[in-house]
Write a structure and sequence with these properties.
The complex is a heterodimer of chains A (about 150) and B (about 675).
Chain A lengths: L19 H9 L1 H32 L10 H28 L5 H25 L20
Helix pairs in contact in A: 3-4
Chain B lengths: L1 H24 L7 H29 L6 H6 L6 H10 L1 H22 L8 H22 L23 H16 L1 H13 L5 H31 L10 H26 L3 H24 L14 H21 L16 H33 L7 H21 L10 H25 L6 H32 L3 H11 L1 H25 L2 E7 L4 E4 L2 E12 L4 E11 L2 E6 L2 E5 L4 E5 L1 E4 L3 E10 L5 E9 L2 H18 L4 H10 L3 H4 L1
Helix pairs in contact in B: 1-2, 1-6, 2-4, 2-5, 4-5, 4-7, 5-6, 5-7, 6-8, 7-9, 8-9, 8-11, 9-10, 9-19, 10-11, 10-13, 11-12, 13-14, 14-16, 15-16, 16-17, 16-18, 17-18, 18-19
The chains are: A mainly alpha (about 150), B alpha+beta (about 675).
Amino acid sequence: MRNVQRVIPPLLIPHRSYDVGANRRGAREHAGARMSAIVVIVVLVLVVMGAAAFIAWPIVRGDRIPDATLTPEQLERQRVEEDLERALAAIKEIAFDHASGHLSDADFTQLDSDERARAVALMRERDLLAAPPSSAQNGPLTPHQTPSH
Amino acid sequence: MSLLGRALVLLALLCAIFAIGAALWSRRPGQRVWKHSADRAITTVFVLMSGAMTVMIVALLRDDFFFASVADYSNSTLSWYYKVGALWGSEAGSLLLFAWLLSGYATLVTRVNRDRNQDFMPIVGAVMMTIVGFFAVLLTFATSPFNTLSVVPKEGGGLNPLLQNIYMMAHPPMLYLGYTGLAIPFSFAIAALWTRRLDTTWITSIRRWTLVSWLLLAVGILLGARWAYGELGWGGYWAWDPVENAALMPWLVETAFLHSIMVQERRGMLKVWNMVLVITSFSLALFGTFLTRSGIVSSIHAFGASTLGPYFLTFIMVMVVASLGLLILRLPDLRTRHSLESFVSREAIFLYNNLLLLGLTFAVFWGTIFPVMTQIYNGSKITVGTGFYNQVALPIGLLLLILTGIGPMVPWRKASGRQLARRFLAPLIGTAIAAVLILGLTDAATSTPAVIAFIACAFVTICIAGEFWRGARVRHAVGGVSWFRATYELVARNRRRYGGYIVHLGIVVLIIGLTGSQAFATERDVALRPNQSATVRGYRLENLGSFHSSTPNVQSVGVSLAEYSGGSRIGTLNPEIGFYPASQQRLTEVALDSSLVRDVYVVLVGVDSTGLARISVFINPLVIWLWIGGAIMVLGGLVAAWPSSRAQRAARDSAAPDPASVV
């Protein structure tokens, strides 16, 4: 065990008295301390072994898990889907703003038709992309992808 | 036990290194199994850090003065909770707490995303473990809470009396939770840049984490202000102290980020800006921890001289350079398809809000590092006074407050003059009436900035109330439910939007408290012999005599003051001065009579053998509204961050327009 030599600033800890008796007793308790050090070492060995087994278990067992990366086509499809989601949310908010009196009928008609036209364009773009089925990204793994452990 | 603590931290460091390697390796084709191993290593780091924390807390509770940090920062006369608090009273203990919280967040994020964000998570894990690893390196090689003494003292030095306060038991952990929480958005941002997945996925994944971290940081800052108010005895709560500023800066940038992500989600804009905000907020959080531990600034909140400064500075530099480098490499991928269509639109208002918040952050940053800069260039430290900060913060704060009211009223994309007139007519009429009432019924006119602030608060309150009223009216009409039910459903179905409005309302209330206490405070020093009295702003205080009290931890002398208002007695105030033998420190205990209108705040300066008491009396109007405003902010933040139930999500989705109906 490392003993640390430190300078204690007198203003912070001015009246510290030291338990000399405790240090004398220290010699008598040396054997006890050695015993507790052994216990600590045993505990540490068990902790190291337990941690190593816990961490290495998936590799030792040889789990086979499919890779998870998106193709450029899937990414583009995702972008269009997100834009479409935004457009649909905007249509919903414009309708709410109109109902709550924030928008006049004329403003509502103009903003709503703009946003609907944008949504239609995005839907066409999405259909054109004809994307392959999406992988496990951002959603729960399908049963056959779920690791067995 | 010291050996056990050290070994657990060292093992945590080794596990963190393994987790980084395994997480990165798992990105190679066919090696995904290593991700599972990395996840387990992250959990193990948390378990090991928890073990180290337990060793330290047990040592503190058992008064094990063999540990240097226990001998220096605790003693046997302290209450058990102050003994636990001594953990973050010491520099090494606070680093251990920091590392433990970080590892806890890393484990939580890993578990929450076990089946989600599969391409992000290896990088997220690696980045978070790099940060945990840095703290573990400090705890292993630079400073350790498990250092021991060669000679065991009979009694410890005790906790700094300033820290023996219930608010101080919660303030540092809350700040640390806020700081460490910022590592999550940062890690996701790096993952998004690394994997080139720069759509809104990463933003969606971190929005709630960011909100929680923002909330905890806000609570931490408010608790710190409450502690300063009750403990430091100068009548105030915020002094633009460098360490206070260090907590405020990341919070301001986070606030900007929480607004600008809405622009990215809704319009697909500000992608680079959002990345810069995330990197900046986390870098400022690290800068805050550096500032507290470097010894470069003088602050009541800072740890003493330390050797940790160079470690932190190097780590901050590496993180900033690496993340900005990655951002520059990915700039072509961050190009947006949309642009600002009008300077009068919701997104433009968010942009102005962001620029003001960043401007304020820069001013605070400059004021904080100015003494260091002058020390480097002139050899003499020139400190920036509160005047500088107030001069900058006042106009920026007022503009931000007004934007808080304007923002929700302006539509996305563009707003016509007719639209604006329609939306703002009623709030402006309401504000004009409120202005007449403020000027006619109060004495606020004696301070121009205060009048402007109060009128701006009225404007924002009317705008927010209008938003609730309009929304509830629609639900009341469409759903045929009661007004109370309509308001409840309105908030429940759009927690984020209406939670945000509640936060804005909290800020309004907080600013009312801030304005009242800053612009109309009264301070007077008086000396009272027994049975003598003095009147300060309508409050008469009469000296009833002095008293003494003693516990093993503190010996106190105080004076009892009868408090009268309008001729009738309303209470007794007992300001004290405490002497802490363990640390040989003297500390004043403030006496406070708090009400919704004002605080009567009394500090005992001294009392002599004849019973003559010298006291400082402060009459601080509206202070309590600071804390009430803070509580409303927290409530709003919780509403916004609270996850929707499955049933509510289904109901909301069904309310969204059917794509087929759009055509």
